[in-house]
Amino acid sequence: MLVEHEQVAAGSVLPLLADDAVRAFADGMLRALHEHDATGRGDLVASLRAWLSRHGQWDAAAADLGVHRHTLRYRMRRVEEILGRSLDDPDVRMELWLALKATAAGTSG
Q1: 20 partner at 20 to 30 Å CA-CA among 14, 71, 87, 109?
Q2: CB-based contacts of 90: which residues, under 8 Å, 6+ apart?
Q3: Residue 24 resides in a domain
Q4: pTM of the predicted model, to two decimals?
């Protein structure tokens, strides 16, 4: 994949997310959550995206989703259970955010 220096120098790493290895990482990281959501038992991917985009602010993320903050807390516990990883770990949050962005980049392009 060719990325122009100006794209990265301008402060955006988003062009790098189109890389096949990044997409495979993202698909693998989010697969279990997508499978859970497909059963109709909760919208964990959207909840995770909202929570991460609001930097873990429960009330703001819950308002974005139109759910009670306790519902969002429950969903984030389910994310941790399903993935077997702690959202308290900043590396995990970064990896999940990267996976969500890579997935979005793949569907928009």
Answers
A1: 87
A2: none
A3: yes
A4: 0.81
